[in-house]
Give the backbone structure.
Amino acid sequence: MGVSQAPPAAEERERRVFGLVIRRLVPFIFLCYVVAYLDRVNIAFAATDMQRDLGIGDAAYGFGAGLFFLGYFLFEIPSNLVLERVGARLWMARIMIVWGVVSMSMAFVTGAVSFYVLRVLLGLAEAGFFPGMILYLTYWVPARERARVGALFMMAAPVAMMIGAPVSEALLKLDGGLGLRGWQWLFLVEGLPAVVLGLLALRWLTDRPEAAEWLGLDDREWLSREMARERAQRAGPRPGSTLRSLLSGKVALLCGIYFANTLATYGLFLWLPKILKEASGFGGLQLSAISAIPFVFALAGMVLIGRHSDRQGERKWHVAGCALLAALGLVLAARFQTSVPLLVLSFTLSQVGQRSIQAVFWAIPPMFLGGTAAAAGIAMINAVGNLGGFVGPWVVGWLRSQGEGYTGGLLFLAGSLVAVAVLVASLRLPKVSEATAARSA
């Protein structure tokens, strides 16, 4: 099965093998991330009804929504180190099953305190999923392809927001069924797929290329050698320590960049349905439709910009340009809050820029981190960066409770994206493109 009579040309084999890898792994981890993101942000769709039923104000809602990221921060690095040791198959299954159960438990909150507790627990349960998948892809996909493949994986976030609106609106209409409120049905139904996917992960995920029985023997051995060679080059001649990598200036700078970006991401995501609902007066399918528009265009932007970054072998200026585009969109949104078409257009510009940041940004850390240092470093960047997910929603909620409306919050989020552009521009990365370096090695 795995022995070829005449080995194909190197480029042909590379395209074929990596094509098999992408078709096998990316759709499944994409689906897992859609569910993860939906469980993370579905609170935005439940917010209005849940706040009314439980007597939770805007400031308390913003605070509780952001508490997810506190729990996420606490367990992020340990989770990725465990994944590196025990493998993605077992660890990802554990993460998904536990977070699914906790997400379903959100149906039974009774007030602000239980809301806060379960948001922290949800963060603890999900910690390690996203950086674990980023690390997992470095076992299978070469550096020169990571922005494109990362974009395919990270398209899950806008897809989750697109499908989250109509699905959540439909579930909210189950209000009164079996004595449950609509928002309780939302949490129960949307948490269940994580448990199912966790069980499926035990059969579908393969820890490393050398164990991939779904590849032919020759292809398996070739891929193992290729990825081992890349890891050795990335690690360099000096082994270095994991602690030294975590304390390096580059890791600290990347933490700051990702913090500012995540602050803007969740500062908007966890308020967007409310902003559009209040501006338009729409509900149901109409609200779902206008909420989805920015993310439809974001999907195309992610793929095109990720592909362009790979072809150019350039990362930081792509990230900076996307951040400035996203900031411009939020400034325009603050200006045009009373015009629904212009508001949707503004959010579309913002999402094209902001979602495209993700795929290109996560191609940067593996450029100088390898082995256990990569596991810890990627987790560190994601853990510290995701604390921005606590700050953003809370600040927007606080400013709104002070009578500022959404203008102050949107401008604050735009400022954080300008900070992303400034910080990433200060990064010193290899001058030779990854594509050229990889092919000349």
